[in-house]
Fold each of these.
Amino acid sequence: MQPLLFVHGACSTGAIWVRQRRTFLNGEFPTLPDLAVADQQLIAAWADWLAQSYSGSHLVVAHSMGGAVALSLARQHPDAVAGLVLVGTGPDLTVSPDLLYQLHHSPKEALGLIAEWSLSPTAPTSLRNSSKLQIQRVSPLRAQQEFRAANAFSAKSWLQEVVPALAIVTGGDDLMTPPALAREFLQAWPDVPYYELEHAGHLVMMEQPERFNALLIKILSSYGK
């Protein structure tokens, strides 16, 4: 079976995939390291780090900012990517100037807002509370760097240069990367399957883990057919 590589997004770690670890036993769930590079170079540098750290070709499942890293990996190291599943992300990850300002001047409050915006209104209170606790552990400096890096990223001009995604997955209630942003991939890849899960926000893999895992199994089973 083709090995899997799960790539997390901003203000997160590999633990975001906790509900996928038991199902996808052939998966790698790294936490992207701190790298001393300029903001505009961070996404590409993480792509290089993944290629160096995980040899061979992987099916890459990537969330949010991790989608930018995965796309860059496919562009910079095409032999490292057998296929892409892009979750809660888009070809352009422009960040609101107001959010960037808040992350710099009042990071604790900004991180709290990000935690709130990352979940559907239907998310259970327990998940909402744990999400807020987790995000407050994030270094404000790292959060600022990650969001600036995401803001500088755009794949629109070169999407057709990389292997098309196996699928695009998004939460219907996603406020961080709305479904309209995810659907922009279809302009370059009109035949790629698109899935929008109801009653799920940005953290679709945590809010609807059973549905997400079943969908991911279905998507991955199409590889090579």
Amino acid sequence: MLEATIKLLAVEGLAGMSMDRVAAEAGVSKVTVYTRWSSRTELIGAALTHLQIDHVPPPTGSVRDDLVAHLEAMRRQYDEVGGMAIIGNCLAEEPASGELLAIIRRSTLLPRRAHFAEVVRAGIERGELRADIDPERVTSMVVGVFYADHLAGLPLDADWAASVVDDVLAGLRL
């Protein structure tokens, strides 16, 4: 049901995503969907949270390698599920719903940012990065390149994540 929700959000947006459509796409009854989630908003939050939980690389002990792994996992996941389309569709509906941006933040964006920031904090603690840097700002620098490059239509090839992290880290090392 969560995968069906993600697919519908990416392909048809919020307008095409109803509890009925999710049930049909998942091959279950509408009652089954409502048994687990009482509203479409709750289901969307669960589906987006599911994406976050399933794609967290384990730490390696190297700030560079961990940031590359997280950024590559993010890129790959967005490609697999149509993540940019999901965000775009949800943002387009935000003025009418008034809640989708909060759901996106709570379910995927902030948890993902927390993982990136934790990698940076660990790098500071191990002495790989300067002690005076802001982990949240570094997270914005790394993650922001993904959105900017994707929107600009730049190629996100096999070496992309490593090159982004190397460029960012060049100014952050001791």
Amino acid sequence: MKLLEDYIKHLELNQVLSFNSLRLYKTDIKDFTEFIVANYGLNFDLLSLNEKQLNKFMNTIYSLGKSTATINRKLTAIHGFWFWLKEQGLVDRDPFTQIKRDSQFRNKTAKTLTEDDIVLLLDCDGLDLKSKIILELIYATGIRVSEIVKLTLEDIDLNNNILTIVRSQKYKERTIPFNDLLAQYLKFYVKENSLAQEDAIFKNRNNEPVSEREIFRLIREAAFRAGITKKVSPSIIRNSFLKHMKENGAHETLLRDLTGQKTVNV
């Protein structure tokens, strides 16, 4: 299954997924590989994959007691592999258009925090400046954790309060305005850490770019300090930003431009 192995290496090298998403994709691709080998043998030609085999894979996962959400996620992971094959010029058809997915979980309402929760989180005592900026940054701009770790000073216009998220393989480039409070935090932080234009904004104790795992840890610690007992993660803060923007009159077109997504379900 060399093509599947090459695809995983592509995901790792190009960092197109967050840490948690990459972990799940690896699991889903592994499950699909085991299914193919068990049912069609090691020499199966993946380029000949068709809807009958995909449906059989779906039924196999379902028979194991997995949820519709899990089945859809695994199909999304395999579909990503197929898109990659098309980019390589190895296939020109799409068997995924011939299968029907259960839509039960596809429009599930995203988890969010209330505005009161956000105030508690952003204003809690005992946080260092880096943690405060990361929290403010996610809630003020909707930036993804995978984008935070790549952020450099060059991406931030502190004179005009504009953040530029550079184009990735999955999302187009976008510019996002942010508030004066975040600008003040950033200006102080940049000066205090003597950052150059090409420097990563957030670094760890070893002076290396901060990891996604550390950002998750910082946010969990902030939620604990704020006394918030419900689950808090970067994506939940991001969803809260979008939901509150929408509730305050922001048009969905604006929200799509801010996120780079085709749809915004909050």
Amino acid sequence: MAPTAQAQVRVSPLAPAAVPATFRHSGRVVQALHYTDRTGTYTVLATQSGPVADPAAQSSDGRRADLYAYHYPATSTAPNWQLHDFEADCPLDIAARFRPGGLTVTDLDRNGTAEVWLVYRTTCRGDVSPSTQKIIMHEGSRKYALRGTSRLATGGGTFDGGSYTLDAAWQGAPAVFRQHAAKLWLQHREEKAGN
């Protein structure tokens, strides 16, 4: 019996300026990818607002920062899934940012259906403490989340943070997904004070 051929996932970067105006989104595009797998052709956007005044804040100096991801099929200008995370009502240092290169597309289980990975951090802090860090992965309609904190050097060779937990969806996932998630975490977990 001949092995079945799986459609190869093809991925290409898309310049933020080349994102179609028909793709409605919030925030500024910081990374965009275009890919084709056995299910179709898609565009994925990672956007963020940066710190802005928060009209719902308890204090007059409260700010918010939002980030979003949108997954558009080629046949529609409406996303078939999206992500929104944020920090709000923060009068201190605030951020909600995708990590550089934090949007990637893979086909680790070689089934012809792409996995879309998003790595980002959110924080509201007035001291030297780790940020919240998350990795969200979508394969088709399935969503997987890994949540924890970045790792900060506290001096004298000691560190604060850096651990994570996997949500229940990972239990039934292929081992290669968990291995890649752990690799991405290590790749992105280090944070310098002030960044």
